[in-house]
Amino acid sequence: MKKCLLLGNGGREAVLAEQIAQGFSLYSIMLHKNPSIEEYVIKSNGKYIEGNPFDKELVGKFIKEEGIEYCVVSQDNLLQEGLIDYVSGLGLKTFGPTSKGAKVEWSKSYALDIISKIAPEMIIKNNQVTSLEELDEVMKKYKDDNFVIKPEGLTGGKGVKVGGVHFIGKEEGYQYAKSCLQTDGVVIVQDKVVGREFTVMALTDGKNIVVTPTTFDYPYRFDEDKGPGTGGMGCLSFENGLLPFITQEDVNICGKLIKDTINYINKDSMEFKGVIYGGFFKCKDGIKFIEFNARFGDPEAINVLNSLETPFYKILEDICEQRLTQENCKFKKNYIVTVYVVSPDYAIRKGNPCEFTLNVENIKQKNSKIYFASCKKTGENKYISIGTSRLFAVCSSGGTLEEAKEKVYNAMEGNIDSKLHYRKDIGCIYEH
Known about the structure:
Elements: E1 3-7, H1 11-20, E2 25-30, H2 35-43, E3 47-50, H3 56-66, E4 70-73, H4 76-80, H5 83-89, E5 93-95, H6 103-106, H7 108-118, E6 126-129, H8 132-139, E7 147-151, E8 161-162, H9 170-184, E9 187-191, E10 196-204, E11 209-211, E12 216-217, E13 220-222, E14 226-229, E15 234-237, H10 248-265, E16 274-283, E17 286-293, H11 300-306, H12 312-320, E18 335-341, E19 355-357, H13 360-365, E20 369-372, E21 375-379, E22 382-385, E23 392-398, H14 401-412
Parallel strand pairs: 1-2, 1-4, 2-3, 4-5
Antiparallel strand pairs: 6-9, 7-8, 7-9, 10-11, 10-16, 12-15, 13-14, 15-18, 16-17, 18-23, 19-22, 20-23, 21-22
């Protein structure tokens, strides 16, 4: 059986591990032992080690000793640090962009420059600020907090702050922009627009793209979209691959932009293949571009990969051989609901490690899946959090939205430690 190395060990990597292990022997280098990834490594007769995936010497040694042929990377900072560049140089077939290709995520100004060239009508008015004097001048244009602050670099999906939501008042926004400017040397101040936010992801072999079903994310910590922003508290996808407020034509517009962007990035050499994730607003005057991610979103990856009809490992091979088509990358027609479970302190305050109990087998027996993220197992049904991120996700699918919602929440009831938190309204569509 072919051997595939997966780098990274969050919830996104947990679902990738499940998919890869269906057709490859799975290998992994993990900072901590993710229970899901460990399970799929063992099931596929692969091997894992605990170590630093940023350590290229360690990665190279593991690859050579185990005779690994493929590598999948879908973690933003690993891509920025050039792990795809490194393993490609060792002769591996890869899924994920080079560091140069991933620049569309780790440099927001670079992404905006591309869009301004290929689709200027989709740009939201913005200022790329490089000095305190420029920032002071830009701030004079706003009478209140009707603007958005975007850091230049990677922030784990938590850096963009919207006036009136994440900061209150012009002065608070100014101070946040100032701190971003001091950190990165660049900060983006963008007009606040009225519209519905949505994402479109596309798989690509560097030449062809296949747009995946669209997803509806729940970025706020508490029910009814209240509280601070998070990495995502849950995700919903519909059987028709759309959302109630977008059309196929909207998706086609975004798909064309994504394909044109891939062509632009790859015009001189192959820098981007894998998956690209575009954030958009649907406004009265058309679709507007927000940002790109150069990897799967999380939890969006859980929904998209669970909606695949074509096995992911086959898609991986087709991407590596540059033969991706709509015909060899098909999706099921079902509703999928994913709910993330977090510690009580998540996104609110820096807390101590959270110990908790969890009955995994009971959840699985209720026709639901579980994907671990930032926690490790300490005993029978006992776990502890690692860091300050989300703990694990529970995912269910169904022929109707109500069926998918009922399955996921029924599976969670009585099987998750009462001290843990999760939103009870994943599956509701809020208007903003």
